[in-house]
Sequence to fold (368 residues):
Amino acid sequence: MKIEAVTLHEIRMPLVHFFETSFGRTYEREIVLVCLHTDGGNAWGECVAGENPYYSEEWIEDAWATLATFLVPAVVGKSFDKAGECVPLMAKVRGHRMAKAAIENALWAAEAEEKKVPLWKLLGGTRKRIECGVSIGIQDTVEQLLEKIETELAAGYRRIKVKVKPKWDVQVLACIRERWPEILLSCDANSAYSLEDFGHLSDFERFNLLMIEQPLWNDDFYFHARLQKKLKTSICLDESIRNARDATAALELGACRIINVKVGRVGGMTQAIKVHDVCQKNNIPVWCGGMLETGVGRVHNVHLSTLPNFKLPGDVSASKRYWKEDIIEPAVEVTADGMINVPDAPGTGFRVNERLIAKLSKRTQTIR
Ligand code: OSB
Ligand code: MG
Fold:
């Protein structure tokens, strides 16, 4: 496929319900989308950078500038046999993994389309249904959180993850466990704790959590390793893992027993597969994380989750949990037993609603 031109879009979409983590509350997403105009048609990718540099350094404004100034010019006008061939062309740019992933993932969709194979097969997937969990943000009251959990369990979701932070943790987890002693339950701190909290984090042990996600600093392995030695509960790393080399280092140090793979965080499908493979070799299960994606990014997560070492339910859930109207057709749906059936059609198996994207766009830029 040849990339003849690229259009960047910035769209704005209100969330059905606000989402709050230890670093803040979001009511409305602002999202950068990349549309590759190829000789085989348009292919879309989502940049999962946030509205602010709080989850990671990357955010939409610098993603846009880096895409327009460096990354798109590195690939536009070029021809590719395989999507992964764009990775070395963008390698000169340090970091900006979410921006790179938007381009690479769009190219994977284009390659699947061109070769007339479902994306999951092209990625090396081995299953046609994936297990779904949900990530539930911090609420105003514990009662509201319990109500949300009730709703998600009734919808069939197989694992509940709740966001925690100091003062919204032990008591909250105790209430959940009192009501649901048996469910698969995990928590995600998004780096809200530090060395002084090791004792406090030990109080989480009694809740029989599947994992504690990223309790300590976003760029740390060493202190996570110290913490993991103290805990029976598995630590899962999210923010800290930027690539397969990080995964190797973290596992050698014993910093975690589970890894959350986010394709945007690691810079695209090629690197996501490498992280998956390193973990598989080390008998470390992975699961697919989410970044409150629109359908464009969600569909890439769905296909990636079909690889064999995605052994735990991911944060890949139905479109309707986030959006009144998603920008793909059909919307991503979850069965009553908490699974997503992965399409067998060529490409992603979903249509991108370009008319709706045009309506939602606050800014566009085409680069030839
Ligand atoms: O840490 O997994 C995270 C959302 C935004 C930023 C970071 C995270 C999250 C989530 C949401 O947990 C997962 C989802 O998309 O539902
Ligand atoms: Mg996380």
Notes: The first strand starts at residue 3 and ends at 21. Residues 121-341 form a domain with the TIM Barrel fold (CATH 3.20.20.120). The chain has twelve helices and 15 strands.
